Each structure stands twice: as structure tokens, then as C-alpha cells.
Amino acid sequence: MPSASNDGAFSQSMFDALKAVQASMGGEAGMKLAVSEGMVQVPNAAAAIRDYAQQGYDLVIAHGTQYGNSLQEIAKDFPNIAFAWGTATDTFADKGIKNVFAYNPRAQEGGYALGVLAAKLSKSGIIGVCGPVEAGDAKTYVDGFKKGVTDTKKDAKVNVVYTGSFSDVSLMAAAAETHSKAGADVLTGSSQAVVGAIGVAKDKKAIWLGTQALQTALAPDTVGASQVYDFSGVVKEMLALSAKGTKGGTAFELSLKTGGLKIVYNDKLSIPADAKAAVDAAMKGIIDGTIKPLP
Amino acid sequence: MNELFTLPVLLGVLYSGVRLATPYLYAALGEMFAQRSGVVNLGVDGIMLMGAFTAFFIVTNTGSLALGMLGAMLIGLLMGLLMSFVSVNLRAVQGISGIGLYLFGLGLSSLLFKRLLGSTKAIDGFQAIPIPFLSDLPYVGDVFFKHNALVYVAFALVPVAAFVLNRTTLGLKIRAAGMKPEAADSLGVSVAGVRYFCVCLGGVMAGVAGASLSIGLINLFQENMTSGLGFIAVALVYFGGWTPVGVMVGALLFSMVNAFQLWVQVKDILPSSYRDFVVMLPYVLTIVALVFGRRARQPTALSKPFSRGEN
Amino acid sequence: MVFPKTPMAQLPTGRDRIEELRMVGITKRFPGVLANDRVDFDVRAGEIHALLGENGAGKSTLMRQLCGLYKPDADEIHLNGALRHFNSPADSIHAGIGMIHQHFMLVPALTVAENVALGLSSSRGPLLDLDRVSKRIDELGKRYSLKVQPDAQVWQLSVGEQQRVEILKALYRGAALLALDEPTAVLTPQEVGELFKVLRQMAADGHALIFISHKLHEIIDVSQRVTVMRDGRVVSTHPTAGSTRAQLASEMVGRPVILEYEKKPYAPPVVGEAPRLEVDDLWVRGDRGRDALRGVSLEVHAGEILGIAGVSGNGQRELAEALTGLRPVAKGHVRVNGRDLTHASPLQRIAAGQSAIPEERMKDGVVKDFSVAENLILQDHGHAPFSRGGFMDPTAITRESAALVKGFNVKTPTLDTPTKNLSGGNIQKLILARELSRKPAVLICAQPSRGVDIGATEYIHQRLLEQRERGMATLLISEDLDELLALSDRIGVMYEGRLMAVMDRAEATLARLGLLMAGVSS
């Protein structure tokens, strides 16, 4: 994992899923789980991946797009171990590798739904987005979110800032600050650095909409709802396939339809019923295909 | 492009600049004292992380901002003592020991965070205090006089630091220890004592800088939340030519460039293909600062351990 | 009732006098060296007591113990009859002892007043009281003819002025005893004269003064008593009056010393004969980017030694570096044997028949961790006989370097000894061996005897004169006027990057050179 397992975002979403799967399989006795967190340096992560493979773990997950190249190299050397990585859609099957799974949350789906919610909640009609780097699930989330807002309220304005860093908390705080100054009363953002933005949102009494992991606990009076990545289904499926001898080749999509993505409201904040109804309608539309979340 | 130069945007850039400059200012002023006495402490970032965690931890548990601040200062002092011991008594290569201190702070703050808190929850940090009358001034009031106490104190420390350096006997000893320690020593000044004092002062200030993030600006803690801010503070000392006012100008310039790039994006002023260049600006500025820093005024004994009778 | 006061019990600074300081049986050992071996030394109020000895004789070590920088292994220091221990400079300053170090203990970027006030408590508590300090500096300056601007920054001052600041610093602290370590090394002859006036005045006021030097005529000129040290021990202590230079020199070295060289008379160059070294309007930038050389032109002919005098820092170092290819030339021309070498590399210059004795011998002259043999072949290792086809030939290297060590009287235990273990004089002889064995046409020679003992200096001088007779053209850059006067055929003086005047040796008097060194050209 690229950051800490309690980052309230990307790494935590996977960590929570693994813990849940472990619990359902009988705790420590049923499933052995080992985690290397804070792997900012790709070479360190690559070393960890190789170690786990050598120790004979059934499934080795490289949780970060940046680990793809290393994984591709290592997977070749351990054909009997199942590997997985994400967010990604490429299992390297075209390169003759048969033991890599890929998983990809369709962040745009929850993004769209939260966009609808934001449009309903915003009084000023200005909404701020704090992104890290314009790539991966951060980009698809932001694009879906924007479409959700503008499809709901044509004249609403969505201001987007990318800070250029997944980890710079204080810059993310400054981005939220700037949004607030520019009039935004609903904020959202992606990556592990958003805690900075959430702190500012709390300060400015704005509403925060989270993604990746359940962010309510970070600021119970501020977070309105979160899109939660639930990897537990995917992890279970990968373990099942692996047990049957299929070590890779499948690219999983987390979506609202499969239950891999969820919208979780914060009950402490009273969200108007019509807003919730609009979100439900949007989710239904995405699931049955009548709404395309990406432009 | 024209939208950029509207009054609200310019005021916004100034306001954010002043606010963002605060942690840099604490850390860089403290580091400036250490460097003026002849010690480069590259461990600022590590001390900041420990300060940020300590303050956050105390405030989460007690709700007292004052206690949190005190804790951050104390932990900064302890880490300053460690750095002084290594660089003054053990005469270690300061660049290396500073990096060691940084890694120590990074690792320990992460470990403690996991062990003691586990997850993070926003706290009520320092609130903005509008200064009577001044905050009612048009434009200026919004930009300068509606901040929290930590921001005011940071800027108030600039003239204080200049006064201490230039007008007190202690300041004279500090300057001499950093430029020609053997001369200070020959006059009975304790070079080790002066350096201990300055490095510890720098540690305390770095602790406050960390606290200004976790209980002042962001009100949350996250592992490695400084993400290298302390290193930029060290660069700002060079950029500022080792003077308090220079350091302040550097901190403001750097944070305003940061604020500027955020506003450029919020207002969607540049086509997105140019955005990357705007995001790059602060880092370009850091490099420029290091290359064109006013070397001429660098303390001549910077990063050189001193021991009597060796010259 | 009025108590009678002993006349002159107090100094004009208001401090009590140090009637007598006695150091008895001082011993100080460094790893492998006995720097002070049972040294007895004493000085009384009102006298100037000279301490004479070569580099490494133990003079500075003795003084460093007096001012609290070193702790003696065995010591007894009596001040006015009472036993004292100096554990730090603060102790020694408090006892009224002031030390003027050879390398000034001044902070260049601070003002004179700040340098003086450093480390003292202020009348305004934690705040500086520079106004009061400045006033007192002016008073002391008037009393002792030590004029300086209290608010000037030290780096802007001349060397002589900096020395005055050092003396004022000690007087300000109430020093009753002043030890001056090689105070004249960096001064012009006129400045030396002024310094001596100040010292005599201070002695007359009741200060006790220790004057450390290796310059014989200065000791005879200024001191009442002299203590000679050699190899860490005191050789003798006696009144200066009646001593001759030759006598003091032989006490210092331990054998008779030649002070005047026999020298073939100077033959002015034949008209029309091309000079060996020609420098034409040379401009060179210094370390700080300012012009260090501002249009220097000179010629050196075969069989001639051209001496360059000047106070340190007037462009001599940059001149030597430019001529040896270590510093880029901004403007102008340099020709050796008629070939333009203005921008040539050091290697090209060696090939053109030029050799060099660098000022910083440990830095630019030898690789200090290399063995004696390796340093001897440093420049010629790339070709026969030392290497063939890229491989070094150890037999030839040993043979040739043994011959050089013998021929130039380099005292070294073995050829494989690391060069840094040799004494300054022997390292200089090693460099001389390497540079002169090539029989160069031109030699750029900077500060050849700095830090070198009298015996080695004598040897080096003889060798330089020998090469002069062979026809070598020598540019001799030195801050030691005695050396220049002894060796040169013509002498030029550098001041602020310009060559002030070039005159024949016969016309060069100390007074004239001194004025030129201070920038006075008429």
C-alpha cells in the first residue's frame, strides 16, 4: 500500500476489506494476512511483493497503479502465486502472463451520485473539488462528479483544483481554503491528502463528500456522505478463483451494480429526503445503464 | 486571463499566502537561528511531524490548545537537544545526522499515531481572531487581520528575531559562533553553549510549526502530513540570506505562488494543458532559491563542527 | 587617613599591573611529539620579552597554554607570586592576559565595536551597548595611538588596522599582559615601525609584553630580553642588548648559519634578447569576482630573479595561479620562451619548460597522502622512464626518486613514507627536487620559505641561486622582504592588483619598498 492503512482513503479501503474477509473466514486462524504500508518508493514495494511471493502467500495484492511494472516482472517468476493490482484493468494477459488479477473501482459512478447530492445540497451553487493528480480513479471520480452536478443543476459551478501531490496535506488544505474563499459550500476530493481539506471544511462549516473510504469518522459534523470502495467481494472472488487453480486473468470492476461501490450517508447530518431520492434515482439510472456517468 | 487580476482573486491569493506562510515561518526562523550559530539542521521536517502529532494527540485527549502547543514545544526541545548532542558533542556530519533525525521523527510520529490514536478525527483548532478596528479596514483587514493567533505570532516573531540577532549580546555571540567560532572561543564565549541554545530554539520553533499545521491550519493529523515542508523551510533560510525579514519574504513568496496556482485552477483561467506548469511553479521557485540564494552572507562556519585548538 | 599608593600600581586602563608572570616546568605532549619540555619562562611589568624559535619549536604551544586554549600536562603558572590555573580562555582573560594570535581572532563580517564587545557583559543587561563600547574604543585608541573606526566592518580594514583592533580588544578587556604571536608577519615595514612604537608605549605604561617572532632584527630592535626555544625546550634566556643576529640565529638552529649569500653579480639582459617570461596587461578575477589583477605587465630574462613584494592579498596569489594555469585569465597575454601560454593548461606549461613552486604546498604542491616517491613523479609519471605503455615501472620509479631524495637532501625515513609525515622544510625540498630536476627555463616560485626552518630555507635559497646561474628565469613572489632582498636582481611591488614599480635590487631599500607596499607611489 502506498500510504498508511488508516489514511481514511485509498489504502484504508483495501485494508478494511481485507480485515472483513479475514473475519468472515474465521479470523487469524482462517486466513493469514500481512500488510506493508507506506510504500511511497516503488522499489521498496517491489521488494515487499517479491518477499510475499517467496514466502508462499496465496494472493499478493499490489495496491497502487504505480506498482504495475514491478508486478509484471515479479509475476513471471512465480507462476503458481496469484497476484492482483489496482486500480487497473490490465491483467497482462496479452504479455503471456496468466497469474495477475486487476481491479478497478468505477469511481465515476459514485462520483456522479455524489455530484447529484452536491448539486442538491449546495446553496451557493458553487462546488469545490480537491484532486491530487489528474489520473487514475481520482480523475474518473472528478469527471463523474462534475457530470452529476451539471446534469442536476445546469447553472451550478464546479471548481476543480489538482494539487499535483497525493500526500501534500497542507496544500490540499490550502486548496479547500481557496474553494471556500471562492464561495464553495460543498467540497469533495480524492486521495489520502484530503484530510487537510476535510479539516478546513469543518472550519468553514462546509459539507464534505468523501470517496474511497468511509470518511465520516474524520469529521462527524462535516462529512455528508462517502462513496466507499468495498473490495471485500473482489478479494473473496480472487481467493476462490485462486483456490480453484485460476491464478489470474480477470479484470474486476467495482461498481454500484456489483455492490463494490456504496454510497454511505452520515446519519448525524440530516440530508433532505428529496436529495436522497435524487441520488437513488441517479444510482438506479447508472445501474440500468440509462445514465452514463462519464461525459 | 483577465479574471485572474480581479480584486477578490488578488486578495484571496494574499490571504492564503499569509496563512500558508505560517508553518514555513516558524520552521525557517528557528532554522535560521541554528544556521547563524553554525549548525545546519536538516531534521526540521522530522521535528515538525513529532510536534504536529504531539499537539494533535494532546488536544484530542484534553481539548486544551495551550497544552497541545506546550507539548509540541517540549518535544521540539527534546529533539533539538538530540540534534545538538550529535552535531556539537559527537561532531557528526550535520547533513547526515539531520536526515537521520528526519527519518526518526517520521517513523516515530507514524508509530505513535498508530499505537495511540489509530484513526484521526478533526479537532477544534485555533480559531480566527479578527483584530478590532484593523480587521475592518478595507482590503487590508481581510488579508492581514482575520487570522488565528498562530499566524499573528509567527509574523510578530520576525522583528523579535531580528532584534535578538542584531541588538543583544546573545545575538552577537550567535553571529560570531557561526562565522568564526575560534574567535568567539578565544574571548571566552562558549561556542558549544551557543550552538546548543540555537539548535534547541530551532527545535522548539519546528515543534510549533508542526503544531500550527495539526491544531492551527488543518486540525487533523496524518502520517507524514508535512510532506517535506520542513525541507522547504531549510531552503527558505538560504533564500532569505539568513535574515529574518529575508526568510519572511521567501516564505510569503513561496506560499503566494502556491496560493496563486490554486486560484488559477479554481477560476479555470488557463487551459488545462498549461496547468502542469502552474503546479510546477513552487518547486521551480525552491530550486531557484537554492541556486541564487545570497551565498555571500552565508555563515562562514556553517556545518563545521568546532573544537578548540584546531585551525 | 590616606593610604600611600605604589606609583604605577595601576595601568592607564584602570587595571592592576601584572608585576611578574612565571611559567615553571611547562610540559605539553601531543601524540608523538613533546611540544613543550619543562619550559621555564617569565615576563615582568614594563618589559618586552621576545620569544624566538623556528616553526615547531613550541612557542605557540606555550602561549596557547598561557591563554587557556590548551591544558598543560604539567604546569605551574605564577601570577604576581600566586599559583594560577587557566582552564579556559575566560579564566585567562579574567586574570588580565591578552593574546594576539598570528591568525587574527576577528569576525570579518562584524564591526570593530561588535568584535570588541563579543563575549562581554553589557551595561544594558541583555541588550548591546555599542555606543559605550565605541566611546571607550576611541579613548583607548587615543591613549595608545591605535586609531580605528569603531563602526567599520572588520573585512574592510587593512591588515594593520585589524591588528590594532586585536590589541584594542585585549586592552578593552583590561589586559595587563599581552602576548603577540608573530605580529609582524603580515605588516609593511612602516606598519612594523608603528607597531613597535605602540608596544614601547605600552611597556612604558607598565604592561608586560611577550613578543613572539623568528625575525632576528625585529627582536634586537624591540625587546629587552630574549628567550630562545628549540625542539620544545628553552635554549637560553638573556638580555637582548649586545646580541647579534648571527648569535641568535645559531642559538635558534643549533649550529652556525649563513645569513648573507654569495651571489654572482647581476648581469642586465642583453639588448634585443627575448625575455623567457613575458606578461602583458594581465587581468584576472579573484574568488569574489572582483578584479584581482588589474593590468600587470612584467618580463623575466634568462639568469634573472624578479622578486614580487607586497602585503598579502594584493593579487600575488592570483598572479601565481594565473601563470600556472590554475586560474582563468580575463584579459592580456602570457608568453613563455616566445610561445603564447595565456590560456594553456598546467600540463602544456610544463611541456613548455615552466616549473612552479606553489604557495599552498600541502594543497597545490603535493598529494599529502601519497608517498614521497609518488609525489616526486607526480608530473612525469605518464612517460618514460616511469611508465611504459600505460604501466608504471616500479624499479625506475624507485631508482629515480632515490636519486632525487639524495640530491636534494630530503629527510625522509623511506621512499614509501606518506608525504604528510614530513616536515614543512622537507616537503618544500621534495617539491623543489621535482620541479628543478626538470631543468626548467622558467620558475614561478611563491613563498618558498614560508613555514620552513632556517636550515631548509638556506638550502632552498642556494638551489634557487644555482639555477639562476644555470640561466633559469625566476619569478619570486614573497612576503618576506629579507628573502626578496637576499635573492632578487630586480624587485617589483604589488598593490591592489597593480605592479607599482619595478626597480633594481641596488635601489630597493626597506623604506622605499614599504611605502610602495602601502600604495604610496611617489
What report would you give on this structure?
- The complex is a heterotrimer of chains A (295), B (311) and C (522).
- Chain A is an alpha/beta fold and 295 residues long.
- Chain A folds into two domains: 10-106 and 230-254, Rossmann fold (3-Layer(aba) Sandwich), CATH 3.40.50; 107-228 and 261-288, Response regulator (Rossmann fold).
- Chain A contains ten helices and ten strands.
- Chain A has a six-stranded mixed sheet with strand order 5-4-6-7-8-10, with helices on both faces. In chain A, strands 1-2-3-9 form a four-stranded parallel sheet, with helices on both faces.
- In chain A, strand 4, helix 6 (136-152) and strand 5 (157-162) form a beta-alpha-beta unit.
- In chain A, helix 1 crosses helix 9 (232-243), helix 5 packs antiparallel against helix 10 and helix 7 (169-181) runs parallel beside helix 8.
- Chain B has 311 residues and is mainly α.
- Helix content of chain B is 71%, strand content 0%.
- Chain B contains twelve helices and no strands.
- In chain B, helix 2 runs parallel beside helix 4.
- Chain B is globular.
- Chain C is α/β, with parallel strands linked by helices.
- Chain C has three domains: 1-9 and 20-96 and 176-259, P-loop containing nucleotide triphosphate hydrolases (Rossmann fold, 3-Layer(aba) Sandwich), CATH 3.40.50; 105-175, no CATH class; 277-517, 3-Layer(aba) Sandwich (Rossmann fold), CATH 3.40.50.
- In chain C, 32% of the residues lie in helices and 24% in strands.
- Chain C is built from 17 helices and 22 strands.
- Chain C has a six-stranded mixed sheet with strand order 6-7-8-3-9-10, with helices on both faces. In chain C, strands 16-19-20-13-21-22 form a six-stranded mixed sheet, sandwiched between helices.
- In chain C, helix 14 (424-436) runs parallel beside helix 15.
- Chain C is globular.
- Classes of the chains: A alpha/beta (295), B mainly alpha (311), C alpha/beta (522).
- Chains A and B meet through strand 5, helix 7 and helix 8 of A and helix 1, helix 4, helix 11 and helix 12 of B.
